[in-house]
Amino acid sequence: MTQLDIKQKEEIRERLAEYVKRYPSQAKAANSLKDTSTGTVNAILKGKFENISDTMFRSILSQIQSTRIDGWQLCSTAAYKDMETLLMDAQQYQNVSWLVGPAGIGKTTSATIYARNHRNTFLLPCSEDMHKSDFVHELARKVGIRTDGMTVREALAAIMAELITLDRPLLIFDEGDKLTDSVFYYFISLYNALEDKCGIVFLSTPYIKRRMDRGLKAERKGYDEMYSRICRRFIDLTPTTEYEVAAICNANGLSDESAIRAVIAGARECRFDIRRVKKEIHKQRRIMNAAKL
Fold first, then answer.
1. CA-CA distance, 60 to 286, in Å (whole number)?
2. How many angstroms separate the Cα of 269 from the Cα of each of 168, 236, 277?
3. 132-143 vs 152-163: helix axis angle to the nearest 10?
4. Do the beta carbons of residue 160 and residue 191 sit within 8 Å?
5. Taking the mean position of all CA atoms in its chain, how far away is CA 195?
6. Are 230 and 202 in contact (CB under 8 A)?
7. In the chain, where does DSSP find H-type helix?
8. Taking 90 as the threshold, does the pLDDT of residue 184 lie above it?
9. CA distances from 233 to 83, 98, 123, 124 (A)
């Protein structure tokens, strides 16, 4: 593996500086990074690179680069505007909501951009294999709390104690429909402790509607409490349209009308999934470049 040069290290320093601004202190930002000390973060920010290994620089970059969207021009779709408005509302007024949209509509990207641009906003990707301890300790890390030696209960208490000290904090749980019932219950505890003190937004596919309906009909533990805390409503994001797909094409250097029609046709097969749109744009670019040879 090639060594990083000074220019590359300086670029990582700039990215790290952006990342740190999202936290109340350098220490909290360092705590949110795996295997990274406050001293290391401080040294990099001051440009003292000589005692920092390339491995550490790469580790930090891998953890913070997801807060930037590189190499692709984004378009302000209706779904993006929906999310921006709803996330801002949740943070400003410390309320709770559950946003629903099909896979590929841009939920994760929109949430990532929002978290990048707003202080005290913490985005936690969820997964089916998350146990209670995984969920709590990962959330603690995102908030900037070291949980070494803490029990799950102690870590949860530390999270809540930290959040209520922040100015308009916001928790975003991406793919919240993947959380197990046992982890769902922690949300109820979080809500009870943070009501009117912290905004909370869940993002997921429409599957959550069927899951909630089944849970309510079966009178499964926690489901009615959960549904009540999101005001018994799921908010549907506006679907992507072919006009927005055309705008994405133009924003990413594809202006040929026949190529745009081909992208729209390919994307229409999967309800204008943005991932498919991106793939089709790359495909049309390659076709056009080959035709020029």
1. 33
2. 41, 21, 11
3. 30
4. no
5. 22
6. yes
7. 6-20, 26-31, 38-45, 54-64, 78-93, 107-117, 132-143, 152-163, 181-194, 207-217, 223-229, 242-251, 257-268, 274-292
8. no
9. 16, 8, 22, 22
Q: Which of 39, 55, 66 is nearest to 174 (CA)?
A: 66
3-state secondary structure of 239: coil
pLDDT at 12 over 60: yes
| β-bridge mates for residue 49, sequence order | none
The two beta strands, 199-204 and 121-125, are: unpaired
- pLDDT tens for 110-150 read 999 999 899 999 999 999 999 889 999 999 999 999 999 99
* Residue 199 DSSP symbol: E
At residue 142, the 3 state secondary structure works out as helix
Average pLDDT for the chain:
92
| Per-residue confidence band for 71, with pLDDT thresholds at 50, 70 and 90 | low
Structure token pair of residue 248? 């994405």
Q: What is the pTM of this model?
A: 0.89
CB atoms inside a 10 Å sphere around CB 284:
20
Torsional class of 246: left (φ above 0), alpha (ψ -120 to 50), beta (otherwise)? alpha
Rg for the chain, CA atoms, rounded = 21
163, 143 contact by CB (below 8 A): yes
Residues whose CB is less than 8 angstroms from the CB of residue 120 and which lie 6 or more positions away in sequence, other chains included: 22, 23, 24, 166, 167, 168, 169, 170
Query: What is the chain's length?
Result: 293
**Tokens 């908010």 — which residue?**
235
Q: Going by DSSP bridges, is the β-strand pair 121-125/170-174 parallel, antiparallel, or unpaired? A: parallel
Question: Which whole-number Å values give the CA distances from 179 to 29, 63, 185, 254, 289, in the listed order?
Answer: 26, 23, 10, 39, 44
User: How large is the greatest C-alpha to C-alpha distance in the chain, in angstroms?
Assistant: 65
Tell me the two tokens of residue 225. Answer: 């409490």
